[in-house]
Amino acid sequence: MAKQPETIGPYEVLRLLGSGGMGSVHLALDGEGRTVAVKVLHPHIAAESRGLERMEREAAAMRQVRHPNVAEIVDADLTGESPYLVTRYVQGLSLHRIVEERGPLEGEALRAVARGLAEALRAVHAAGVVHRDLTPRNVMMTDGRPVLIDLGLAVAPEATRMTQGVIGTPGYIAPEVFDGQRPGPAADVFAWGATVAFAATGRHCFHGATTLEVFNRVLNGEPDLDGVPADLLGAVTAALAKNPAERPQADALTGDAAPAPPSAPPPAAPPPPPAAPLEPLRARFREAMRRDDADGAVAAATELWRAAVATEDRAEIAEGLRALGEALVAKDDHHNAWANFEQGRALAAEVGRRPTEGWCLYGLGVCAAAHKDHARADHALRHAIAIALETGDPTLESSCVFELAVMAESHRDFPQAEWMYDRLRRLSAVTGKTEDLAHALHGLGTCAVEQRRHEHAEAFLTEALRVAEGLGDTELQHWIVDDLLRARPGRRHGG
């Protein structure tokens, strides 16, 4: 049996709480003496580097959740040898144990569970995350209030979920998950219905003698809701619909009977003042950036951001923040650019605007590189590449690849730099960006010069110069000519 660790990161371990498919959970103390639950990931999960990137992103989103019905993630270290997540520790008994030992809940106690869990899901979904394993065992009861725990599966690496097949608890897994669909918020709503039904009746609403029977009933049968009170029956039935599109959203699951319609419609609110159209402002920003007019770009981006705020469209606000960050980078104001990119990234992640999130991560990488924080730059740029591959954006991918190539070359990691420059060269054929081809060839040439492979260097640099001349980029031409002069003497003297 593995020895109980004395510390995990900065946390003093008190005892093992349990172990599961994701890892082991320990009761621990933080630096201020508060109890927390620390989940240490199993080694095979920690080895999924690409999955850990997604896990870190979703853990960051979950850390924004502050709700009395959610045991939120308060810390995470997913970069060390033993990655772990830290959540608020909730003392009490699980809903499953309470119902098993004391019988079904009734009246206000049952409604409090239904309401509290619906509010917990609303908070989790607002962070852009799906819990994926809401069951009575993952609900702790403290002073009559339900608290949703075990957010570890919510931030599980994608590759891990795929290799383990359908993940979740039989009877609480939504039908669409069996068809290979990625669990969405509607899957959590399905689990909410099954959990409330269990709390009301003391039995699984998709009960069966074997797991296969349970799965078959979820897919093809009807739930046993006998004993669910009338004021909850409608919401529970709707939540358990086979078609996820027919289930209500979490914010509609109040746990109470539907309110009576108002006797008269409320007075109409006055229409908001019309917002400035965004597309002309975007065009002004793009034109200023094309002209290398940094001051004009900042002015246009600021106006674009303000107009986006007036629309109250969070996706547009995120895009406005990204534009403002890009304009500030053009002014070499990386400090303020960073703040705008970070706000834009968080907002884009919240509303599921993946392209904007990716470009904000790229901007964060550029800013970190400018501050010589290469580890953070590498992290952000590789996250952005993952989003570029997910969304099919070769322009974002090539932008990130170029920054990574330059960083690798500056660290004299020439094999990595050459690999990245060659990737940039191939991407230029997809994006049609001739300037990327010029930079890729130039980079391959300078890497060859540094490694004293002068014949290769001259070939790359000569081609780079030809492309740069076609672009009319005189500054780049000067750089290439200087590197050609470094390459040719070495070749004449035998390298």
UniProtKB/TrEMBL annotation:
Q: What class of enzyme is it?
A: transferase
Instruction: Tell me the PROSITE patterns matching this sequence.
Output: PROTEIN_KINASE_ATP, PROTEIN_KINASE_DOM, PROTEIN_KINASE_TYR
The record, for InterPro entries, names: Kinase-like_dom_sf, NEK_Ser/Thr_kinase, Prot_kinase_dom, Protein_kinase_ATP_BS, TPR-like_helical_dom_sf, TPR_rpt, Tyr_kinase_AS
Q: Which SMART domains match?
A: TPR
Pfam families to which the protein is assigned, alphabetical: Pkinase
Q: Which residues form the Protein kinase domain?
A: 11-261
Please list the GO terms describing molecular function.
Answer: ATP binding; protein serine/threonine kinase activity
Q: Which domain of life is it from?
A: Bacteria
SUPFAM superfamilies in alphabetical order: Protein kinase-like (PK-like), TPR-like
**Family listed:** Belongs to the protein kinase superfamily. NEK Ser/Thr protein kinase family. NIMA subfamily.
Q: What is this protein called?
A: non-specific serine/threonine protein kinase
Q: Which organism is it from?
A: Actinomadura namibiensis
